[in-house]
Amino acid sequence: MKHEIFDGGGLSYAPCRYGMSRIFFRGPxxxxxxxxxxxxxxxxxxxxxxxxxLPALVEDALKQTCVNFGCVNGGVDTFVNDPTIMAACHDAxxxxxxxxxxxxxSNRFYSVHxxxxxxxxxxxxxxxxxxxxxxxxxxxxxxxxxxxx
Length: 149
Known about the structure:
- By secondary structure, the protein is α/β, with parallel strands linked by helices.
- The chain has two domains: 100 residues, no CATH class; 47 residues, no CATH class.
- Helix content is 27%, strand content 14%.
- The chain has six helices and five strands; from the N terminus they run βααβααβββαα.
- The chain has a three-stranded parallel beta sheet with strand order 2-1-3, sandwiched between helices. It has a two-stranded antiparallel sheet with strand order 4-5.
- Strand 4 and strand 5 form a beta hairpin.
């Protein structure tokens, strides 16, 4: 994935996976068989473009293992549909949840990709009836679609 390593030897996110999850998270990978704090969220939790994201700062301050379950462009659908991550959050001592945008949620108007929640998949018949003059096949991202509507 392009966002994980930058050219020039700069920032490296050490992408990793946990269990059977298909989602890449920011590393380094942490052990889940010892006490830990789970951080669940989108791009901000992941810490895109920053050297030390919030979970790393909290880990340094508290001297407690923190697991970064941040996902670039992830929304609520990303996590609730992943049993591995839900189990890891259940087993954590504490789970910190970022409030994520509603635009990344599948709803009665449109559907988003199950892991890349910023990706627009399809409009519902309700949405098509409301915006009968819009060609929804022109949209790839929810932000673009919502700004046009």
